[in-house]
Amino acid sequence: MRRLYTVLVALTATSTFLYADKTLSMSLSPQTTDSRPWRESDKTLSMSLSPQTTDSLTLREVVVTGSRNVVDIRHLPMTVTVIGRETLTQQQYTNVLPTVMQQVPSLFVTSRSIMGYGVSTGAAGGINMRGITGGAGQLLVLIDGHPQYNGIYGHPISDSYQTLMADRVEVLRGPASVLYGSNAMGGVLNIVTRSMHGDGVKTHLNLGAGSYGTMQTEASNQVRSGKFSSTVSAQYGRTDNHRPRMGFEQYGGYMKLGYDFTPHWNAYVDADITHFNASYPGAESSPMYDADQWITRGVVSAALENHYNNTNGALSVYSNFGRHKIDDGTTDPDNPTQRFFRSKDALTGVSLYQSARMFEGNRLTLGVDYQHIYGNAYYTSKQTGEILDTPNKQSGRSYRNEIAIYADFRQDIVTWLTVDAGLRFDNHSVTGTEWIPQAGIVVRPMATGEIKVMASKGFRNPTMREMYLYPPSNEELEPERIWNYELSWRHRLETFSYGTNLFYIKGDNMIQTVNRKNVNTGEIENYGMELEGQWTISRHWSLTTNHSLLHMKNKVVAAPEYKGFLGASFRNGKWSVVTGAQYINNLYTEIGDAETKESFFLLNATVGYALYDNLNLWLRGENLLAQRYEINLGYPMPRATFMGGVNINF
What we know:
single chain, 22-stranded antiparallel β-barrel, 37 strands
């Protein structure tokens, strides 16, 4: 308790500062060389870091996730956290999720090893927001606004979200179902992909190695020549991890090609592919053998965008897909399994929206979404390769279609007051029709601060697994539904800023397994508080902190009651140091009669040294206090680990 008290004091001592992720003083600067109007592919082009600005009216932070068009965050009633590429890369993580978990209050990601999350039994990489879990498909990951999840199980595949593709990550806390439909009931994590904005060529190499035979490599090249731009990246990583039979290997690549037809029209195509091989060791008390996974996930998309002074929009097509081959393993190494579990899934969609300013202070967005979801799960014989009987009510194959129309209306009533209202009509080929409303108000009593009030509905359609696969399946399931109510305050000053949120979530129709059958019987009633802040002490030093408190009437695994983070950044000459201290209190690793909770304190640090202008050395240490703790029950996390490497830019 004494250590807990000390940690809490240290963390809360800085609670008057707010996050801004190096975007504290991002200002709109539309004076581009060709005076083009703002467009989605340029959403970071006109952001300039200017911490020395004295005119607080120029402070701006723009996002796309809460409205589908570039908008000043001060006019949105929802809570959005922006994590820029500098922050995503400064600790040398190849996956965006470790950094996102540090920077976003109330967001927690499960883990069991130094590298790799895996899928199936004993998997990690579950994303939890305010007690609502992405492992159940209740939190949506987007890539450039396009939904990404397993078509059969409905959950994110966390090993797919590589830093190499990300320009920044925007996290919207609370339901976003009006704009993004099913699975966005708890919030969305939107990965905005990289683009080259200025003419020239940039090449980047990252090489690293460390504890437990871990290595990571990444190479990227960006080109812009006139109207054409390209980004190409490749990545490879592997580790033995800290337990036997826990190896992980991953490789993948990303490509994006863009072309500007006119100052008002542009198009792009992109593709990302990730393959990983993972071994599952089982819990310490029940070790597993030959539990191996071979997973390939990919996404392709193409978009045509228009950008005018009073209107902008896009037509895009996309598909994310996966191929899974899994050996469930055995507890008896002399008695191996005789079959593989295999699955194929794809989520293919078309998105069309147009946003227009009809008169001063107004913005109306209209959109149409169509999705075709495909899944096929089956077993094959290891000896012959033939397809075996699968406990599935639709012969292992299922199709679903979903079509929706939505509208979002935002109006500045006066200079200090904005109202926002949205409505979505969603029709699912299996579960039928759902109406999803939201409404919010933003009051700006001063130029540097705003009060936000938000009420929004979220929903999730049952997955193919819940309806058709395995004995608990139930074809009569209905969508899950929640209502989220939120009150927030945010204030930005010259050298520090802060913000706080209060939220209340009430939901019913949650899908649970009762007497070996999936039924809509669960409830959610969560409430809590979030606090975040950043202080730019000088041009060398900055601090960032965030905290969240969560109360759950019905407990869920991987949702800590308290989560706190305090980070410090130092830069001077050739040296840079980034440190982070995170405290997790009352993290549920098992619920029910055998309820189990974990509390732990982690200290991480990354040191960089610019040996030459284009050559940087780095060293990262994690869990430097060598704490023993578990996030997944029965899977102790590694003690202190280290990675070192080099960045080369030319």
